[in-house]
Design brief:
about 290 residues, alpha/beta, Glutaredoxin, Serine Threonine Protein Phosphatase 5, Tetratricopeptide repeat, 15 helices, 5 strands, globular
Length: about 290
């Protein structure tokens, strides 16, 4: 059930009419969610509030992925919540994870502009900590956990801080200690994906050696895969994504679909919503 007049339940039956065709005149945000997903429940009211502020010039379609598994599969949904914007009959952008209201508004305004008489969103506490180093975050969170043992969500934040600091074993220990509801959280999946990518480089050649291997043999799929991980985790994420796309285009089935898995993991790790949206569309064009 939905509470807003501008929100509806999107299903495989009505998706073509109420989302694709309707978006030719009114853009539609599509929210892929599940009842067991805690971040989905916090994001849902924010999406409705933002959509309502556009006074009917934007709609919100909610897809229950437990009931609409085929629809979720078509969009390649691997992390919840995932939100995509459908406009003029096409998916034009998207993001994963529970953004604050300011983040959702920025995402929508990038494509639709500001709604009339839009209210300024309230400051978000997380944004005030954007310049905190991983070590500072670890120290702060350890103190908070000691004082608030009944808040397991702090352990998830600590796992993320350890991952940012490159302390993989400590990060994994915090993930393993999470209760089941948080273990399936989108943030937990993001940290796990980052750790998996980091482990892929254990004992791997450096980027220069991998480039040499590719120069000698462009069909060296392992070298291209590992080079992509190096670039993704380094300072060239777009180039890393390009390597994965090349692997997907030329050797889709190599190593049980490794290229697709790498791209999905990368989308979970990256903070740049615009970059993720661009490469998600590129991946979709190769798969569908």
């Amino acid at each position: 059930m939905t509470a807003s007049v501008h929100t509806f339940d999107a299903t495989e039956t009505n998706f073509e009419t109420d989302v694709i065709q309707a978006s030719l005149t009114t853009p539609v945000l599509v929210d892929f969610w599940a009842d067991w997903c805690g971040p989905c429940k916090s994001l849902g009211p924010i999406l409705e509030k933002v959509v309502d502020s556009y006074g009917g010039k934007l709609k919100l379609g909610k897809v229950d992925t437990d009931k609409e598994q085929q629809l979720a599969a078509v969009f390649g949904i691997r992390s919840l919540p995932t939100v995509v914007l459908v406009k003029d009959g096409q998916m034009v952008d998207g993001f994963m994870g529970a953004l604050p209201e300011s983040g959702v508004r920025a995402f929508v305004e990038k494509h639709l502009g500001k709604p009339e008489a839009a209210a300024e969103p309230e400051p978000v506490a997380d944004e005030l900590l954007a310049n905190e180093t991983p070590q500072q975050a670890i120290a702060r969170l350890q103190q908070e956990i000691a004082a608030n043992a009944d808040k397991p969500e702090l352990k998830l934040d600590l796992a993320a801080a350890f991952a940012r600091a490159g302390e993989a074993d400590a990060a994994q220990a915090q993930l393993d200690a999470l209760p089941p509801n948080l273990a399936s959280d989108a943030k937990a999946k993001r940290v796990a994906a980052q750790l998996d990518l980091s482990r892929a480089l254990k004992n791997a050649p450096d980027a220069a050696a991998l480039r040499t291997r590719l120069t000698q043999n462009p069909a060296d799929h392992e070298a291209r895969d590992l080079l992509g991980v190096h670039l993704l985790l380094g300072d060239e994420p777009a180039q890393g994504l390009d390597e994965f796309l090349t692997l997907l285009r030329t050797a889709r089935d190599w190593n049980e679909g490794q290229a697709k898995k790498r791209l999905i993991a990368a989308f979970n790790v990256l903070d740049d919503g615009e970059l993720v949206g661009t490469y998600r569309r590129k991946m979709s064009s190769l798969l569908f």
